[in-house]
Amino acid sequence: MADLDDNGHELRGGLRYPWPQAPDAGQVREVAPGVWWLRMPLPFRLDHINLYLLRHTDGWVVVDTGMNTEQTREVWDQVLTQVCDGLPLLAVVCTHFHSDHAGVAAWLSERFHCPVYMTFSEFHALHLRFPGDRPPGWDLLDFYRKAGVDDERSAEMFAVMSNAHFLPAPLNHYRRLREGSQLHIGGRTWQVVIGRGHSPEHACLYAAEDGLLISGDQVLPRITSTVGVHATEPLADPLRDWLDSIEHLRALPDSVLVLPAHERPFFNLHTRLDQLEAHHRGHLALLLASCDEPRTALELMAVLFPKLSGRFDELMALGETLAHANYLVAEGALEREEDRGRYRYRSAVRGACAVTPLRVF
Question: Which value, to the nearest 10 degrees, does the dihedral of the CA atoms of residues 269, 274, 276, 277 take?
């Protein structure tokens, strides 16, 4: 039996959970006046995403949408009839561009002729698509070869990436969110707080007077969001953005009720931020300790993620391994060397120039 606090909240892993169970798939729960938590199913091992319905005047505003699948559209048909009571969606807010968050934003917008709100970087990232209808270009192949992945394994990864599940319907319009933007919904003011690292310009929504934070994937209660490097920007440093965003979010009160995109709403924001930072600091230390001899990213992936189940997991794990390696290269703790078409990483020699110069040709 779980430990409970004086308010009957479950205590687990340093966090407090007001609700012992999530709603069933396709069902809702009111978590604050006019704020409804909708559990949308996903076709993965992570089998759900949390969406939030905000009541406003003569309709609703939805935060995030679910994936671009027939199942998602069927659940929306049910919710619009049974929960929204036939009232229209007035706006769609997408925290970020990932397929489970923006998959049917265009479909909902077209259905209700309503605007879609998201940040500039997320809107443009939404339209950077893997070329699933043609063979991968040299740049994609080169990215995975440099990481130590052979072409056969790469082809299997490409097949995963080209799955229609991962392709949100394209949008022809959006209304731009920025840091500090305010959305007035249902008598409540939501302020945009930007996080980075998991995606380019992730929008969290903070209602100060009510102590509510719709955190999307920027803060999750138990699992950690992927912070990865991808072929579109192979020398990116998203982990630095992620760690900076943790510090940015510490400006919010610890007392907020965090409404995350996965698992259950919780209290103790600052505790969770500490845990997220410690998780990545631990991975950095483990990776650095494994580079006494030159290692490829694929070899280091096996150190950080010894138990993976399939090519999708490998895609995520490889991107995250590269994020930690790139961070340590930028810090001067690792050297990155190119050897026969592979990047290899090793602990930096004391006194040497640790950061490999950027080659322009």
Answer: 140
**Residue whose pair of structure tokens reads 């396709």 in the numeric block:** 26
Rounded to whole angstroms, how far apart are CA atoms 107 and 297? 39
Tokens of 84: 């929204």
Q: Helices (DSSP H) in the chain: which residue ranges?
A: 70-82, 99-102, 105-112, 120-126, 138-146, 151-161, 238-249, 269-289, 297-304, 311-331
Phi, psi of 212 (to 5 degrees): -120, 140
8 pLDDT band, cuts 50/70/90, is confident
Q: What is the mean pLDDT of residues 277-303?
A: 96
Please give the model's pTM, rounded to 2 decimal places.
0.93
Residue 88 pLDDT greater than 90, yes or no: yes
The DSSP line for 307-337 is ---SHHHHHHHHHHHHHHHHHHHHHTSEEEE
CATH topology of domain 3-129+169-281: Metallo-beta-lactamase; Chain A (3.60.15)
What CA–CA distances, in Å, run from 291 to 124, 284, 320, 321?
A: 36, 11, 16, 13
* 200, two tokens: 């380019």
Hey, where are the domains in the chain?
A: 3-129+169-281, 131-166+290-343
Other beta carbons within 10 Å of 24: 11
* Tokens at 57, concatenated: 């005047």
Q: Under a CB-based contact definition with an 8 Å cutoff, are residues 3 and 11 in contact?
A: yes
Examine the pLDDT at 356 and tell me if it is beyond 60: no
Q: Which residues contact 155 (CB under 8 A, 6 or more apart)?
A: none
Which has the minimum average pLDDT: 32-46, 110-124, 150-164, 198-212?
150-164
Once rounded to an integer, what is the mean pLDDT over residues 202-215? Answer: 98
pLDDT for the residue 166: 76
Cα→Cα distances 214→93, 138, 313, Å? 11, 40, 26
Task: Using alpha carbons, select from 118, 232, 215 the residue that is nearest to residue 171.
Answer: 118
